[in-house]
User: Which sequence fits this backbone?
């Protein structure tokens, strides 16, 4: 996030795009409700009637995968009315003329045609977002999990820069990160192109710094991202794989493809806390400790580094995960002996400028938000004040694109997927919490009343959902949460995991797959 | 009777709510929201409130497992470490470090992620390390 969670409640206008906040980030939704109480305008952009829309001033119920067209239309309307922030554009950005030309063809009528959003709503969104004092954008996977997810994000950045709604308190572009420590995993360099703190593996100065610290020669060659590693297993260029705490078989799209990849591995290690479907395929399974059994830190979505503290012992022979890595490394001749998680943290922060001022003592009570380069630095509440990371903010020319797996004659429904409030990913953890299982015991596919009527379906009926990749059987719930012609499923239950249906349509840059638009057909199962 | 509260961070979503784990005689018995003036201000969602429930599940992995004759069988740490280091070393020596890859975990701590990427980069001289940033 460029801003802090607490700042959300002081925004004057919140534009929430592709985020089912009340279910996926409940305690951030609570800040949005506070903002509403304080008089903020809430605009929710989502094809579904999610809970948040009940509190929204405007619900933009756009067609699936048409966010770019909608935002471009909003920007065109802003420019036509001279609501853009000329001072911000001239001092902080470049390529404004290119943006202007790009969005010009996005007339109100054309955008309304593509997105299904009434002209009035596009105009209102433009006016309210541009003219409110502090407007803030929040988005999640509804934006990124498309085959053009990176372009979606750049389009939101265009909108924020056009209006100068970034780089100040309660105003910015805020991705709400889904997993507890996805921010931290990125920060720590669990990525094929960067060391901890986003220091490039191709930068020779950086390479030398890490070589000196770690005492071995390092590769300056970019590594492979997960989808490429999966392909590598199949084509034989990757032979050995170590999976730490990921249930790829059930969590990744296109299940059949993932299974084929893992079966092709010469040697597969899975290190986890449960015998997941992925662990069942391994040559060696290592029992790790869970979060309640280790000391350490997580970085939340506002970049706040907070302590995790050991409360109980791991079960049986299970070991703290850092001890497992430390032992393997040491046996392979690497200097990786540690006495505590804190010692590892200190080695990391000494090599990572944005974490340089952090210590367990300093983050003990409330955590600290990075960047925090020195012991005196208080941490950073919001980013891009005064300047962007790359200097001037660049406008990008981005056009509306079609999803790769749009509904057609044969597969007339659009399937979109996501989380439920009571569960988390493949529910290896939540599926073992009694309260949560009682709350949400089985998979459900949501379908619109109109479609259900035409197909003679009612609540609880079993349907067969078929895509170009596979099929699953699931009970349905009829209502108006999803618009006609579409279906919503979660991926929490092995018995009806939507990932069986999804293809591997990746964003060309981030390699993030499309979890949001998948063509399917439905058949009623015999009673 | 040994009763303690341990303050920690929620293991689920990116909100990073602060919570108190209630420990009775070495077992988690409940989760309470931390009431300091920080992010969650005395509130947790239903996932956070029940976060302790999976920890002592009988399904937890308690021993290393090694595949023998097609079946995963209980093994010692020594056997598991020995097999992992010899098989990975063999692959590295035969096909090069770039034929090995690591998936790290967006659910684990910073320290664990740091060590996972350090192990991958130092022991195998490859940058084939990624994690599931997308789910
Ligand atoms: S308590 Fe709920 S909202 Fe808070 S971090 Fe945990 S899952 Fe997220």
Assistant:
């Amino acid at each position: 996030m460029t801003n802090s969670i607490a700042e959300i409640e002081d925004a004057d206008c919140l534009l929430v795009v592709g985020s089912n906040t009340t279910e996926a980030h409940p305690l951030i939704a609570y800040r949005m409700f506070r903002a509403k109480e304080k008089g903020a305008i809430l605009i929710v952009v989502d094809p579904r009637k999610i809970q948040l829309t009940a509190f929204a001033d405007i619900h933009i119920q756009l067609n699936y995968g048409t966010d770019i067209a909608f935002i471009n239309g909003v920007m065109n309307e802003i420019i036509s009315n001279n609501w853009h922030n000329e001072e911000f554009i001239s001092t902080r950005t470049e390529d404004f003329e290119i943006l202007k030309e790009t969005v010009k063809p996005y007339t109100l009528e054309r955008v309304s045609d593509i997105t299904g959003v009434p002209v009035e709503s596009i105009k209102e969104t433009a006016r309210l977002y541009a003219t409110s004092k502090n407007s803030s954008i929040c988005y999640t996977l509804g934006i990124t999990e498309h085959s053009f997810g990176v372009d979606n994000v750049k389009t939101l950045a265009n909108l924020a820069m056009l209006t100068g709604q970034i780089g100040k308190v309660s105003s910015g572009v805020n991705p709400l990160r889904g997993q507890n420590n996805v921010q931290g995993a990125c920060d720590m360099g669990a990525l094929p192109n960067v060391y901890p703190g986003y220091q490039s593996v191709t930068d020779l100065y950086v390479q030398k710094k890490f070589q000196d610290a770690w005492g071995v020669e390092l590769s300056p060659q970019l590594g492979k991202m997960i989808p490429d590693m999966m392909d590598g297993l199949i084509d034989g260029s990757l032979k050995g794989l170590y999976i730490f705490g990921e249930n790829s078989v059930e969590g990744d799209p296109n299940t059949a493809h993932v299974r084929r990849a893992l079966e092709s591995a010469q040697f597969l290690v899975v290190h986890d806390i449960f015998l997941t479907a992925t662990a069942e395929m391994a040559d060696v399974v290592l029992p790790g400790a869970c979060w309640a059994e280790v000391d350490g830190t997580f970085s939340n979505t506002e970049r706040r580094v907070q302590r995790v503290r050991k409360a109980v012992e791991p079960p049986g022979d299970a070991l703290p995960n850092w001890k497992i890595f430390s032992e393997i490394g040491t046996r392979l001749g690497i200097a990786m002996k540690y006495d505590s998680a804190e010692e590892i943290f200190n080695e990391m922060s000494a090599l990572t400028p944005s974490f340089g001022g952090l210590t367990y003592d300093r983050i003990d009570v409330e955590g600290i938000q990075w960047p925090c380069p020195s012991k005196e630095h208080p941490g950073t509440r919001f980013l891009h004040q005064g300047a962007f990371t790359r200097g001037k903010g660049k406008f990008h020319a981005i056009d509306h694109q079609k999803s790769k797996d749009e509904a057609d004659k044969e597969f007339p429904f659009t399937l979109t997927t996501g989380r439920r409030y009571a569960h988390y990913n493949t529910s290896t953890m939540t599926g073992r919490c009694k309260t949560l299982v009682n709350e949400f015991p089985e998979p459900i596919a949501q379908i619109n009343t109109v479609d259900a009527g035409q197909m003679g379906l009612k609540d609880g009926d079993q349907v067969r959902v078929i895509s170009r990749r596979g099929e699953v059987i699931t009970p349905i719930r009829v209502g108006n949460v999803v618009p006609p012609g579409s279906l919503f499923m979660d991926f929490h239950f092995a018995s009806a995991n939507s990932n069986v249906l999804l293809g591997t349509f990746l964003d060309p840059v981030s390699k993030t797959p499309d979890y949001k638009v998948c063509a399917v057909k439905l058949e009623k199962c015999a009673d | 009777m040994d009763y303690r509260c341990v303050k920690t961070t929620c293991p689920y979503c990116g909100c990073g709510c602060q919570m108190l784990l209630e420990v009775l005689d070495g077992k988690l018995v409940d989760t309470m929201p931390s009431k300091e003036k920080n992010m969650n201000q005395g509130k947790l969602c239903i996932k956070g409130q029940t976060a302790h429930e999976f920890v002592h599940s009988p399904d937890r992995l308690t021993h290393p497992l090694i595949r023998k004759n097609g079946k995963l069988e209980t093994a010692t740490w020594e056997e598991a470490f020995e097999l992992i280091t010899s098989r990975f070393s063999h692959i590295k020596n035969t096909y090069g470090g770039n034929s090995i890859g690591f998936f790290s975990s967006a659910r684990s701590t910073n320290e664990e992620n740091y060590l996972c990427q350090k192990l991958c980069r130092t022991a195998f001289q490859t940058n084939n390390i990624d994690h599931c940033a997308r789910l």
Observations:
- The mean pLDDT of chain B is 91.
- The first helix of chain B runs from residue 46 to 49.
- Chain B is about 25% helix and 25% strand.
- The CA atoms of residues 102 and 129 of chain B lie 5 Å apart.
